[in-house]
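Continuing the series of single-chain predictions for the mutant panel. This is the parent chain; the variants come on the following pages.
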Amino acid sequence: MRRGKVYLVGAGPGDPDLITRKGLDLLRRADVVVFDRLIPHALLEETRHDAELINAGKEPTRHRLAQADINAIIVDRARAGKAVLRLKGGDPLVFGRGGEEALACRAQGIPFEIVPGVSSAFAVPAYAGIPLTQRHLSSAFTVLTGHEAPGSGAGGVNYEALARLGGTIVVLMGVKQLSSITRRLIDHGLAAQTPAAVIEWGTLPRQRTFVADLETIADKAREQLVQPPAIAVIGEVVRLREAGVAWYDILPAELLPTASPVLAGK
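Parent structure:
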């Protein structure tokens, strides 16, 4: 029996062409692909015809598989000599539980490899025309989850420090908690007039971007019926979108990436 291995691969933020070349090559050769809900589903067409495909997607109110079950599946398939590819949205180590899955493999003596992906934390703002850093505006950015694990304790978000830090703030998985997040930032001293944006379905043809100030961005998102997946960007760099950096939203419809040139060249 050949020795199996697990590959923790980032699929990118949505546009299937944003997967790395290495990730795509491994995907095409894997025996087993365990994939998340928000991976670009066009990528599943790149798998071998005989590959086992396992949907491990988690929805906000329903988990198809518990994390312990996902860990057990990738370990068991690898122990059986399979090349197991765990395909995760964005980057596997940015709020993706890739570290937990790596530790599960290590505990069972299963070899693994981590293949970084393009994170939505910077790719989605880029598609919305919002640079996270800009000379004289922002020399740092902070990425936080809007969906903290219960009992995060010392590992939770320190909103007081965050409000003092300045720079750009990116909130992932936070559309449902946006009102609470923005209120906590304002309560800890961040100016209510700070520019803010919410970007829904970033990097995809259905992308929508809404801009307001920190005090009203949650109301704007609610009025526009914004749903996950969506991220928020807070900081002076948001002004650069309307200053001329926006590019994707103004592309003619015929130029939007409805077909993937990389995938078409399989």
